[in-house]
Amino acid sequence: MERAVERLSALQSKRENIRNICVLAHVDHGKTTLSDGLIAHNGFISQKLAGKLRFMDFLDDEQRRGITMKSAAISLLYTPKVAPGAGEPEPLLINLIDSPGHVDFCSEVSTAARLSDGGLVVVDVVEGICVQTHAVLRQAWEERLQTCLVFNKLDRLIIEMGYTPLEAYERMRNLLHEINGVMSAFVSEKFISQADTLLATADAFGGDNAAEGEETLPEDAELEDIVTDADHSDDAFSVDRGNVAFACAADGWAFRVDLFAEMYASKLGCSSKTLQRGLWGDWFYHPKSKKIVGKKTAGGKLKPLFVQLVLDPIWKMYHAAEAEKHGYPPEGKDLATMAASLKVDVPEKDIKSSDRKYALNCILKAWLPLSPTVLEMVATCLPSPIKSAPHRSFRLMPAPTLKAELDPADARELTQSRKAVATCSTSEGASTAVFVSKMLAVPVSAVNGMSGAAGDSVFLGFGRVYSGVLREGDKLYVINGAYDPSDPGEDACEEIVIEDLYLMMGQGMFRVKEVPAGNVLAIGGLERYILKSATLSSTKMCPPFGNMMFQVAAIVKVAVEPENVSDMPALVEGLRLLNRSDAFVEVGLMETGEHVIAAAGEVHLERCIADLRERFAKVDLKVSPPLVSFRESVSSTGVAEATTSNGLLTIRATASPLPPYFPRVFEDSMESLKKVLLSSHNEQLDDADTLAPEILSKLKTSRDALAVEGDGTEGDVQAILSEAWALGPKQVGPNLLTVGETVDGETGMPLRSLGKPLVGEAFGITPTPHQYAAPGGASSTSLIDMSDPTVMSTVEGNALTGFQMATLRGPLCDEPLFGVNVRLEVIPKPRHGDEEGDGGFGEEQYGPFSGQVTSATREAIRRSVLKAGPRLVEAMYLAVINTTSEALGGTYSVLGRRRAKILSESIREGTGVFIIHSYLPVAASFGFADELRHSSSGASNAQLMLSHWERLDIDPFFTPKTEEEREEFGEDGDAGPNMARQLVDATRRRKGLKVEETLVKVATKQRTLSRKA
Ligand SMILES: Nc1nc2c(ncn2[C@@H]2O[C@H](COP(=O)(O)OP(=O)(O)OP(=O)(O)O)[C@@H](O)[C@H]2O)c(=O)[nH]1
Ligand SMILES: [Mg+2]
Predict the structure, then answer these.
(1) pLDDT band at 435 (very low <50, low <70, confident <90, very high)
(2) For a pocket test of ligand 1, which of 29, 33, 53, 139 has the largest count of ligand atoms closer than 8 A to its C-beta?
């Protein structure tokens, strides 16, 4: 291995001969098996074991469960074929990253895609395009990766499904059509924003350097290429262009049609180029005229060329092997005769082997070898780092948003460092930029040359050099995601010395002295400086790399504590390490003092707990049942008041539901929304100009989609936003504070507005001005002077804080509010006759006035929510279930028990496999996959992915009032389970909150009224 590493390392500087690729697919479609085949080509594992070993699944858990959980990288060498006499072939360095397909680990896909330039998208031809296939295609698209397609498991079509070659061809043609449809949807959706990228290119290097930037950067032409591509809406994957391969990774064979074109061209008397085009689609060989003809001339009797020349021979081989295995004579030629006529180089003893499956594999491997086919596709269809850098740099390193003007020298340096990334420069003066996409916890024993106790782990940064050359001993700055080069701050970028660099070979890490731009690597000694991901740069004038897109939310939480209290410090340390080792896990401390782990799903959670127990904390743990997050909302309008402790000010809050599309769009566009709202404070953020209309149009589209009835309840986006003062919680949440009023305590007349329509302004909407009868007339009648600007700003500022706090914790079970519109009125206490205020705010007695306003506001909002028909909002999974007709009944009963809503049921063409789409509440999802498997004896399986938040339309406080209701629901409303109440109860109990009287079912149990969880 060491010799290979030396050779690979030497190739790292030839940037045009490098390919950084990741393997992407839905779970179990064969990524790791395919990687095995590619690795075997380099002799790191034996050909015999390839496809069975799953080399890249080196974790015990991965081997045991048979799924990949962490992405891992390996460097491979590929020497392409060259035409005779064309000189020595130049070897290629292929850095391959195998990624997991299970939805719980899709953050690993994000980190893998970030470090690659190209992707191999693997599709199981029987399963077809699944949810995660969509997700990885989107991920690849978002990261601007070029992709190739591998149709895998062709053997399943032959043996398991019993398809004829023609049926198989039709199946694959439909799949290709479907997947190209998915890709073209991305293209049209992103077409506009791509035009933005083009415009951004022009001013990205802004100011004085604009001309220089345009001159030397090759990307303008290339970006134009993308756009023209989009114009022509060319299929992303096309068999005759060569970016589609057909494979059986498990048996170690694969082909592209060019191989068959060369094989048959001279026989059919045409050039291989022409034949290649005819080898996919409705083209037929007409034996009489000896021509390749279209459908009309062929007249329906002939088989398409692909079927006749490509699939038929393969099918015949499999059938012959099958027959020989069972001792029947094959229908046509036997396997040995076919091998002889193909002139494949297979030892006689293998062809004669009594294991006919083995003989078949040997022949196919020799005839259609997997790795040269796939690696050649990678070499020719996927870009080198140099080629892809200009396409990707605007996604990777977006133009920084600067708070202040840079001085010209700094501005130049900033431009240069971005330019170095955009050209993947390794020249002398180029600054070094490295992106670390995650931290890997590697066993010390796997790191070459490192010693340590068995079982110890060391953290290495998994990253890629994007510009310059990274050497051991280099001094670099660690730049975090929020860094602003114009305002570096004291400790925003720390200088560190790079200790050791490694080339990754699966689990093994091999030390190298330097790594030039365009290569993937692991970096030691970053543990103290980087939590999960970061940019490293040799200059402070370097913007951070853009955030990675994660397609999931940390929704499943558990609390952990050590079995033995004295192990607490070990647990805390273990949690810290866990947090670092996983790009996605969230680790936190609840107010109750419990340590909480939040993960993407059940399997991910199990993996984290196992890691914590066995590697990081190494202590026995107690793990709570899953804690599910909820949101709280309202179903009608409620008004309530609360008065400050000094009695001088009453706050009246009105809570009402926002139209449902508001919270959805706000949650979806959180990042852009943040930018839009920030821009009102910061003029420099010109992004907002494009983002605000984008969000507005999303809101309007969603409204129109809902407004089937056109009954006016859908609300007016413009009107709602124009009055909006703030969003909450945390300034950008899904709840809205509308501009309110100060009201005369005596007459109830509105005096002046409370707050400013800041959100509306950020969206560029002009509010309709309000008319107030007596501007500033409050001072004469109330005990506090509301016309005093300082008083007014204290009240407004703290009302805002109160709103933020109230929306963070709802009254039902302390969960954040969702989709609530709040309006506040402030009513100062009127002065009666010659009653004298003491001129103060009672601060000695009741604490600062500001605090009093905050808590009164918060209380008023809480009460108003309780009066507005509070409802629980729960997270829903989209569950896609594959099942068979026998297991259909069992599957539906499991779904029914778990409150799932069925969306659709369809049958996969020709397979007898049913696909059910449904929404499943996260709260009811634990153990779902297991139960499903049991109830159907393993015939059903499900993929869950977080979909949206949905209001549970059951009143948690429902008690039957009328006679009929009592009959239906029982005396206390407990005849049928009030789901909402049970969930609220459980959550409150878990949080150690009082379980309220109204929620207690049986009176005799009231002694336990305020029991703690
Ligand atoms: N019949 C058949 N089975 C295959 C083929 N390729 C892979 N498999 C099987 O499919 C299963 C999953 O293969 P993996 O390579 O682990 O799939 P993966 O895509 O890496 O799975 P995750 O990483 O967990 O998403 C294994 O049992 C393989 O043996 C193939 O070409 N034909
Ligand atoms: Mg795998």
Answers:
(1) very high
(2) 33
The Cβ of residue 65 has, within 10 Å, a number of other Cβ atoms equal to 15
- Contact present, 255 and 310 (Cβ < 8 Å): yes
In the chain, the amino acid numbered 670 is: M
**Per-residue pLDDT tens for 707-744?**
655 545 556 788 888 888 998 888 888 999 998 888 88
pTM: 0.73
Cβ neighbour number for residue 224 with a 10 Å cutoff: 12
Q: To test ligand 1's pocket by mutation, which of 28, 124, 156, 360 has the most ligand atoms within 8 angstroms of CB? A: 28
User: What's the DSSP call for residue 304?
Assistant: B
Ligand 2 midpoint to CA 57 (Å): 7
**Rounded Cα–Cα distance for residues 30 and 36 (Å):** 10
Alpha carbons 60 and 607: distance in angstroms, whole number: 11
CA-to-CA distance for 294 and 286, rounded, in angstroms? 9
**The length of the chain, given as a count of residues:** 1013
Q: What is the pLDDT of residues 822-844, one digit of tens each?
A: 999 998 887 766 555 555 666 77
Please give the distance, rounded to the nearest whole angstrom, from the Cα atom of residue 800 to the centre of ligand 1: 55
> Long-range pairs for 539-542 at CB < 8 Å and ≥24 separation?
539/413, 539/417, 539/431, 539/477, 540/477, 540/485, 540/488, 540/493, 541/406, 541/410, 541/413, 541/414, 541/416, 541/417, 541/485, 542/414, 542/417, 542/418, 542/431, 542/433, 542/477, 542/479, 542/485
Q: Does pLDDT of 558 surpass 60? A: yes
The minimum-distance atom of ligand 1 relative to the CA of 122 is 19
Ligand 1 centroid to Cα of residue 447, in Å, is 28
Closest CA to 399 of 574, 596, 275, 545: 545
Q: Which residues, at least 6 apart from 181, have a Cβ–Cβ distance to it below 8 Å?
A: none
Burial class (CB in 10 A: 0-12, 13-18, 19+), 581: buried
Q: Which residues lie near ion ligand 2 (Cβ < 5 Å)?
A: 31-32, 68
Sign of the alpha-carbon dihedral angle for 5, 6, 12, 18 = negative
CB atoms within 10 A of CB 2: 8
User: What single string gives the DSSP state of each residue in 256-278?
Assistant: -HHHHHHHHHHHHTS-HHHHHHH
Strands (E) located in 835-962 = 870-884, 901-908, 913-921, 941-952
Task: Return the residue whose CA atom lies nearest to atom 30 of ligand 1.
Answer: 153
The Cα 375–Cα 74 span in angstroms is 14
Determine the Cα–Cα distance for residues 18 and 157; give it in Å rounded to an integer.
35
Residues with CB under 6 A from ligand 1: 25, 27-33, 54, 66-68, 100-102, 152-153, 155-156, 248-250
Q: Whose alpha carbon is nearest atom 9 of ligand 1?
A: 30
CB 347 within 8 A of CB 339: no
**Ligand index nearest the alpha carbon of residue 36:** 1
For residue 153, the ligand closest to its alpha carbon is 1
Distance CA 696, CA 390 (A): 31
Alpha carbon of 123 to ligand 1 centroid (Å): 10
CA distance 650 to 641: 7
Q: Atom 2 (ligand 1): residue with closest C-alpha?
A: 153
Q: pLDDT tens digits for 380-399?
A: 999 999 999 988 887 788 87
Distance 671 CA to ligand 2 centre (A): 31
Looking at the CA of residue 62, tell me the nearest atom of ligand 1: 24
Distance 598 CA to ligand 1 centre (A): 29
Query: Which stretches of 717-844 are assigned E, i.e. beta strand?
Result: 724-728, 735-743, 750-754, 820-828
| Cα 461 to middle of ligand 2, angstroms | 21
Residues 677 and 688: their CA atoms lie apart, in Å, by: 8
As to burial, measured by CB atoms within 10 angstroms (0-12 exposed, 13-18 middle, 19+ buried), residue 214 is middle
